[in-house]
From TrEMBL:
Keyword ATP-binding annotated: yes
Record's keyword annotation contains Nucleotide-binding: yes
Source species of the chain: Dichomitus squalens
Protein name per Swiss-Prot or TrEMBL: Kinesin-like protein
Residue spans of biased composition, Low complexity class: 374-383
Length: 858
């Protein structure tokens, strides 16, 4: 391990000293910014004037020097016949006079990359400069070239374990495929559940960056060069080694420098194609995208916006720099790093709280010259083209389609910030938003892929996911390297990283190449043929021509008319083809349409032609709509003739910038004056209603509890009443027996045992009558007593309507019933009722008798 790495490892975990990118280890080292470069130093050195890297400028101005690159044989003569070097346009190197617009100026003056003629910035196997010794293993690139990158449909997920001096909490198996990693049982939360086995494509250890690059990114870089979109991103907690893996240091260059090296090595190994390379470098911090290649002032005043939807997401305004050599890429990266440092007060904190994205747009086409495919009337490439949004574009040419792909290399913010900082800082909230959204997006995609569902994927919830939408949605090769710190203290963060990695593994990909066909050349060829056919037709029809000018036999006439019919038919057929060959997008996968100009079949069946016609009509309709909307857009543009002087244009831009500023002030004023007070009112109202709601809820709960108690009590009362009725029945039987016995015995004086009622059949009859009435009342109104009561417990009608047991009889207190009974010799055995006294101190006589008689000997 290098000294620098060792010292970096020794630093406290929360701080992440970032390294400068080390693309050119030897000759460019003095031009590299030292780590300690202060913003002011950078500010003085960042007056970059040309859109191309310094090396590209040297090349384009044709000054012979150490970095001068000889032109390719295919472009040895420019179209106007001059020598290649002198024909190359100079890049607009100095600021235009009179430019005052502070907001828009950078995108139209010396910063305007789009004014470069892409034809002049092409690199091919001859013009690419020596690729140096870092990862310049061309044989390995050759090996990669033999692979088929389009077939992979899974995300490549790898784990990198940072070296540590502390004992590791993880058990790693790298000898079998897939590689596995699991927590050592002694560190598991509970001994009952064994630690989970995580499986990945690669698990890498150690400080060597080359094996990491080879395992994780090289195939993706080659795929990008081959026309597929590719994304490599590093995910993990702070200080786990994301930046070390992506950027590396002088001793161990990371994925970005190695990828760039391979890009040029690939070009060197591909003589059949020529390339246009554009790179951009941006940072997502607090959910705002900052263009790291634009001057800091304009990147702050004009954050990058994401426009478009679905696969057609565009970042604007985003500076893209054309690069033609490794040194150029190095320069661009350094400038980006410099701007990033300038923007931050605490570099380490800022870098671990923001996502950085390095993008390389790769356009390529087959090399022309000697191919024989190019029609003589092929379109010539103009020296300058009107500026195109996002930089210069390579044009299809002479039947050669252009392949476009994007390689994105992303260093994400520390993943643990997403949770630990969420309550503390705004930054934490934003990291939270983007990393958690990334997780949600990935799991939804994985779920959709696994279950064949098409659930909504919340790409729009964060800038990061929105920007990555075209790639994450499937049309890209993705490689994710998750870095973990193996220490015991970092087990929760490492586990969460491994779970994220496992989720992402399930996402299904369907990456496809994108090609644009040279429509002009195709049209030209068809037009030429149509012209020739028409000429032949006209000759045949001319009055003095070979057909009409002499007498023909019937047979000859027939042949001639057939030939003319065929000519007409071919003309018609070609006219239709011209309509449908505007663009051929391989993504549509429509086999019925020609995939390239060379595959066009002129002898298509009528059915195929009909299909072509239908498709062409649809295309025409779409284009008509597009024309209308473009016309509308044009109408709303400020009036300025194309040849207006620069000062006029600048004036207009200045006015627009002022209007924008004014509108911003108005918006801010609205926010300050109205936004805040309105929010406060809303919060108050919400609070008040929340309290009311809470009180209502409490009241309702109380009422429900009361109702429950009521129901229970009612039930209890009912059960008691039934029991009481049973006891009354028993007592009635007893009284009846008692009456019967009284009939045959001596006439007893009024006493407790001889109340006025017990005449033959009297008590029994009265009791029976009352029982009957009560039962019928109960049947008719089972809840009636409850309705009359105030309390759920007391039964009013029961209280007012006394039972036989409760009725007070006016009898002498001094009568000794036991003596009377003994005298009569009656052996009484009343049933044990267990009846509780109805009222204390005023027991009914019958009850008293019963309680007394219970003790009587039978
Ligand atoms: N595999 C490794 N070998 C040697 N040193 C490493 C390795 N991984 C990380 N380091 C060292 O650990 C420290 C932290 O690494 P790095 O800055 O790459 O972490 P990070 O994940 O990018 O953190 P942040 O989220 O803050 O950006 C650095 O000093 C780096 O050099």
């Amino acid at each position: 391990m290098s000294t620098s790495s060792t010292s970096k490892l020794a630093r406290p975990v929360p701080f992440t000293p970032k390294r400068t990118h080390s693309l050119i280890p030897d000759d460019a080292s003095d031009s590299r910014l030292p780590r300690s470069t202060t913003p002011s130093l950078l500010a003085s050195s960042k007056k970059y004037k040309a859109p191309l890297s310094s090396e590209s400028r040297t090349r384009l101005t044709s000054k012979p020097g150490p970095l001068f690159v000889p032109p390719t044989p295919s472009r040895s003569k420019s179209r106007d016949g001059s020598t290649p070097g002198s024909a190359r346009p100079k890049t607009p190197a100095s600021p235009r006079k009179g430019t005052e617009s502070p907001l828009l100026m950078p995108h139209v003056s010396e910063m305007d990359v789009s004014r470069i003629d892409p034809e002049e910035a092409l690199v091919d196997f001859e013009t690419v400069t020596e690729v140096g010794d870092v990862s310049a293993d061309l044989d390995e690139v050759d090996a990669m070239l033999r692979e088929d990158y389009g077939k992979e449909d899974k995300v490549l997920v790898s784990i990198r374990i940072r070296p540590s001096e502390n004992p590791s909490a993880w058990d790693v198996t790298t000898s079998t495929q897939p590689r596995t990693i699991k927590l050592l049982p002694q560190h598991a939360k509970s001994a009952a559940t064994p630690p989970q086995d995580f499986r990945f494509d690669e698990i890498l250890t150690g400080s060597e960056n080359k094996p990491v690059y080879t395992a994780v990114a090289r195939s993706h870089v080659c795929a990008a060069m081959d026309g597929y979109n590719a994304v490599v991103f590093a995910y993990g907690q702070t200080a786990s080694g994301k930046t070390f893996t992506l950027s590396g240091d002088d001793a161990q260059p990371g994925i970005i420098p190695r990828a760039m090296k391979d890009v040029f090595a690939y070009i060197k190994r591909t003589p059949a194609r020529e390339y246009l390379l554009r790179c951009s470098y941006l940072e997502i911090y607090n959910e705002a995208i900052h263009d790291l290649l634009a001057p800091p002032s304009s990147s702050v005043s004009q954050p990058v916006q994401i426009q478009g939807t679905g696969p057609n997401v565009v970042l604007t305004p985003l500076r893209e720099e054309v690069v033609t050599s490794l040194k150029g890429v190095h320069e661009v990266l350094q400038r980006g790093e410099g701007n990033r440092r300038t923007a931050s007060t605490d570099w380490n904190e800022r870098s671990s709280r923001s996502h950085s994205v390095f993008r390389l747009v790769i356009e390529s086409r087959e090399r022309g010259g000697g191919g024989g495919d190019e029609p003589p009337s092929g379109r010539t490439t103009p020296g300058f083209r009107p500026p195109t949004p996002g930089g210069p574009r390579l044009q299809a040419k002479g039947g050669r389609s252009v392949q476009t792909s994007v390689l994105s290399l992303i260093d994400l913010a520390g993943s643990e910030k997403a949770t630990s900082d969420k309550d503390r800082t705004r930054e934490g909230k934003y990291i939270n938003t983007s990393l958690l959204t990334l997780g949600t997006v990935i799991s939804t995609l994985a779920e959709n892929a696994a279950r064949g569902k098409s659930d909504h994927v919340p790409f729009r919830n964060s800038k990061l996911t929105r920007m990555l939408q075209p790639s994450l949605a499937g049309n890209a090769r993705i490689s994710v390297i998750c870095t973990i710190n193996p220490d015991v203290s970092a087990v929760p963060e490492s586990t969460s990283t491994l779970l994220f990695a496992q989720r992402i593994k399930k996402v299904q990909l369907h990456a496809q190449k994108k090609e644009v066909v040279d429509t002009d050349a195709l049209l030209e060829r068809y037009r030429k043929e149509i012209e020739e056919l028409r000429k032949r037709l006209a000759e045949k029809e001319a009055p003095d021509g070979p057909v009409k000018g002499r007498r023909l036999s019937a047979r000859e006439q027939l042949d001639e008319s057939l030939a003319m019919h065929n000519l007409n038919a071919r003309i018609k057929q070609l006219t239709k083809l011209i309509l449908t060959s505007q663009t051929v997008d391989e993504n549509k996968g429509d086999d019925s349409r020609p995939a390239s100009p060379t595959k066009v079949d002129f002898d298509m069946s009528p059915y195929q032609l009909q299909q072509e016609l239908l498709a062409a009509r649809r295309e025409l309709e779409t284009q008509a709509t597009q024309i209308l909307s473009l016309e509308a857009a044009l109408a709303t543009r400020p009036q300025l003739p194309p040849d207006a002087p620069d000062s006029e244009k600048d004036k207009l831009l200045h006015e627009q910038a002022r209007t924008i500023r004014e509108l911003e002030i108005v918006v801010k004023g609205y926010e300050d004056n109205l936004g805040e007070p309105l929010r406060a009112v809303r919060e108050d109202v919400e609070k008040e209603w929340a309290q009311k709601l809470e009180a209502e809820t409490r009241l309702r709960q109380e009422k429900e509890a009361w109702a429950d108690a009521l129901v229970k009590q009612l039930d209890k009362e009912r059960r008691m009443r039934i029991k009481l009725e049973e006891e009354r029945h028993a007592l009635a039987a007893f009284v009846k027996k008692f009456d019967q016995l009284g009939l045959g015995g001596p006439v007893m004086p009024p006493s407790k045992l001889n109340p006025p009622l017990p005449t033959p059949g009297g008590a029994a009859a009265v009791f029976a009558q009352r029982q009957k009435t009560k039962v019928s009342q109960l049947k008719e109104h089972p809840l009636a007593p409850l309705a009359e009561t105030e309390s759920p417990i007391r039964l009013a009608s029961e209280a007012s309507h006394k039972s036989l047991l409760e009725e007070e009889w006016d009898i002498g207190e001094d009568v000794d019933v036991s003596i009377e009974l003994e005298k009569s010799g009656v052996a009484m055995s009343p049933p044990k009722t267990g009846l509780a006294p109805a009222r204390k101190g005023s027991q009914s006589p019958t009850r008293e008798i019963l309680s007394e008689k219970e003790n009587l000997p039978v």
